[in-house]
Amino acid sequence: MLYKHQKALGQNFLINKAIAAKIVAAGEVEKTDLVLEVGPGKGALTDFLIAASGRVMAVEKDIRLANGLREKYNNQPNVEIIQDDILKFKPTYYLLLTTNYKLISNLPYSITSPFLSKFFISGKIEKPKLAVLMVQKEVAKRLTSLPGEKNRGVLTVLLQSCCQVDYLFTVGRENFQPQPKVDSAVIKIAPRKINLEPSFIAVVKAGFSAKRRKLANSLAGGLGITKASAIAIVQQSGLSVNVRAEDLTTEEWQEVWYNITK
User: Fold this and answer.
1) CATH code for position 255
2) Which residues participate in the annotated binding site?
3) Which of 100, 212, 213, 241 has its CA at 20 to 30 Å from residue 71's CA atom?
């Protein structure tokens, strides 16, 4: 498939078949599985998903790539190419329901945060039963960071609050065409059977609203409460008044949220 990539869409095509096979293996894909793939590009990962799964639904925003994939897989009965923007895509329209599909993709770099928010945090759509995603290495490190690490942020806390997130392996930039300026990594996300309350999301965002400052100061500014009230909430949660947002575990964030909303 001859094609000039579109930089605006974050297109970097995987060219290493061994990496594609490793991603599919990490997803424990079986013949009974329905798999949603985002940004199939030229089909490097799709080839292995078709062979391993029962059915593949591949969502491609670029109409030229989508048409090329339809031609490539014209004789494959277990793959459907959908030309759509995944950020506007409605899984239930295609009967993608919780526990009945897996999400395995080499995500376009530019959509990682809104994509993760939509599929795992918002609670507005059906989550996959398992996801294996390739993202920028820096993003993968951030999403799997531990309390106390400086790269821990809002998305990290929210995603870890509703999912088990694991860093699987690094993928060097030389495995893509055109070659990006950064390395990638593959993560596994196993959603838990919980939905985050909007008020919890608001509290976490407030806590990180002035990162590197003490949590009480951030909560005061982010929630519009007095500093004295914020300090009291932090202390009621069993935390030091000197603690910062990135220091908290997801359980401690739940405690802070409880003491704010009780």
Assistant:
1) 1.10.8.100
2) 12, 14, 39, 60, 85, 106
3) 100
Where in the sequence is the domain holding 206, given as residue range(s)?
A: 198-261
Torsional sign, CA 59, 99, 51, 140: positive
* Spatial distance between the Cα atoms of 108 and 110, rounded to a whole number of angstroms: 6
Give the mean pLDDT of 51-77.
96
The CA-based angle 181-184-186, given to 5 degrees, is 170
Residue with tokens 């009291």: 232
**For residues 55 and 79, is the Cβ–Cβ distance under 8 A?**
yes
> Residues annotated as binding site for S-adenosyl-L-methionine?
12, 14, 39, 60, 85, 106
24 and 78 within one domain: yes
The reply to whether 177 falls in a domain is yes
Closest CA to 57 of 87, 38, 80, 76: 80
Domain boundary (134, 165, 191) is at 191
- Dump pLDDT digits (tens) for 196-241: 999 999 999 999 998 779 999 999 999 999 999 999 999 999 999 9
The answer to whether residue 2 sits within a structural domain is: no
